[in-house]
Amino acid sequence: MATFLYKLGRISFRRRHLVALIWVALLTLAGVGAASAPAAGNSSFSIPGTEAQKAFDLLEQRFPGMSADGATARVVFKAPSGEKMTDPGNKATVQETVKELADGSEVASVTDPYRAKAVSKDGTIAYAQVSYKVSGMELDDAAKDALQDTAQDAREAGLTVEIGGDALQAVPHTGSSEIIGIAVAAVVLVITFGSLVAAGLPLLTALIGVGIGVSSITALASALDLGSTTSTLAMMIGLAVGIDYALFIVSRYRAELAEGRDREEAVGRAVGTAGSAVVFAGLTVVIALVGLSVVNIPMLTKMGIAAAGTVAIAVLIALTMVPALLGYAGRRVKPAGEKGKLLGRSKKQDKPAKPNLGTRWASFVVRRPIAVLLLGVVGLGAAAVPAASLELGLPDDGSQPTSTTQRRAYDLLSEGFGPGFNGPLMVVVDAKGSDDPKAAFTATGDEIKGLKDVVTVTPAQPNKAGDTATITVIPGSKPSSVTTENLVHGIRDAGAGIKADTDANVLVTGSTAMNIDVSEKLNDALVPYLVLVVGLAFLLLIVVFRSILVPLKAALGFLLSVMAALGAVVAVFQWGWLADLMGVEQTGPVMSMMPIFMVGVVFGLAMDYEVFLVTRMREAYVHGEKPAQAVVTGFRHGARVVTAAAVIMMAVFAGFIGSSESMVKMIGFGLAIAVFSDAFVVRMAIVPAVLALLGRKAWWLPKWLDRVLPNVDVEGEGLRTADDKDKELVHA
Fold first, then answer.
1. pLDDT per position as a tens digit, 399-412
2. Euclidean distance between CA atoms 365 and 378, whole angstroms
3. What is the reported pTM?
4. What is the DSSP pairing of strand 125-132 with strand 107-110?
5. Please, are residues 304 and 292 in contact by the beta-carbon 8 Å criterion?
6. Euclidean distance between CA atoms 732 and 727, whole angstroms
7. What is the Cα–Cα distance from 388 to 564, expressed in whole angstroms?
8. Cβ atoms of 97 and 85 closer than 8 Å
9. pLDDT above 50 for 422
10. Following CA atoms 678, 681, 687, 693 in sequence, which dihedral angle do they give, to the nearest 10 degrees?
11. DSSP result, 440-489
């Protein structure tokens, strides 16, 4: 591995014009593809294998005119104080509004509140249901404007009018804080390298990689049904790892220059050693992201694969374009220990430099391993405590800020019709195999009426063929409650008896049932996903470190990091701690896919720091240093760069906290906390403490396994010359 990458680095350095041309051509090609591609619509959300999805698919077959995937809007009216919606003036206003709503070319149907009995018992609140032929993201701006203008006309007539549903769904934006994250990364790089040129290389290569990745996703978005969150996630992760991977190679290049090697040889050795760590770190991230496909949720699979593709591009750019740009930079990139004109003199200091902070910290940890280990574990354990109160769910209008019309419409419907009205259950009765479909429909409705927490059961609405019907059930509890979840399971359990009596299949769907099925599917997939991803990465790290205990320690440290991050997410987004500071206007359940997504991404990123830091220790140990001294040597060479990389990654992730989409905001915050926990507590404190306690046992590997495993030579042993070995003997 090291020898191959060494040759690749030198070739990229010598053929820098060709390498740069290839990457610029790929960026241009991806940009042209993105610019000419059709606009992507709203990504479809399907959950294969769940009952809610089966019912949804059945509805599309048996009720072809329903436009089940079309946008909906609930226009909610409230009468002025002391009046009712049935008063002649208010009724005339609503009917005129309904008439105007029906005029739109994309409108499929509009219900009249008075004909549909959509007026509350006290007569103060009513609503009209508007169904569209296209999804919320595909709805024309003119149609959205017409909806809002019509509602405004009714407001001017004296009514309170709010609009719920997904018809007013907006394309999410990340905000200016994303730019601030990149600016922080630039400042950290300048401080780390003391040179604008050296600092600019990682930023430039990362932006090119992200540009290619995101442009490719945009170009394929329509064909592959990729949502806006997919490109945002790819940008978030691709930018973070792209900067980090380039940072490690540039840093190693400067260290090789300081050893007195010429620039081409230094590039080759940097790519052969640090590049090997980049390859394996990238592989762990890719494994973790692609592994999300085992959950079998298409949206999550697409997000993972797209982000993994961007990470792969970041690895390739770090191995090829970074050496090419180092060739262009020439003497403007100084050896380690020399400062550029920006931060100091260009000559080396005559006085011997005192040990750097990384060396002093590692020496302290080696002397006090038990105290540091206990402090780190207890600290992360305390941060993880809120995770025990984790509540999962998918967002609806009830999780929107109270300043939005969607949330106000949600609250008005709860006030007028009960909390369960915002989460109706749709029961689909498939009586195609029944001798008496009508009797099956009636029996199903009667059975559901006898269940707890049922407020309303509408009469069955059969299709034209008369073999399938829908029944709407209004629960007594809000959509995200445990009581509503129990009702869904109760209807499904009752369906078994109905099947035995009438040969009709009873299925429950609707957004509430879909959310319940998603949460259960994600919970069931978490353990298999952990086994797959951690197992594969564990095997990979055994190959890299040629050790059993080091990969095991890495996996356990990751669990501490991810639990601490989940605890922080619960504290902020569920409990409301520091919610104002984070821009969280409405607290509520944590998104169902957050835990499994956090596990995947955090594991990949955690292994980045493990590989970068511990390979330096492994390299020192293999070259003859004692275990404790190898830990200190690894920190002397790697701590400053790992610290810079972690700060950069935290800044990039924190930049996405400004997103208008709650999922992106939550992911950005969770990943920033996870990187902090993993880099500064686990890898910088717990890892050296454990290695100091284990001593030589940390690098133990059974002889039979040592013979079986391939030798990937991450330490660059194959690159050592006779002069290198002589220098080591002299230092020894």
1. 777 778 888 998 99
2. 16
3. 0.78
4. antiparallel
5. yes
6. 9
7. 11
8. no
9. yes
10. -160
11. HHHHHHHHHHTSTTEEEEPPPEE-TTSSEEEEEEEESS-TTSHHHHHHHH
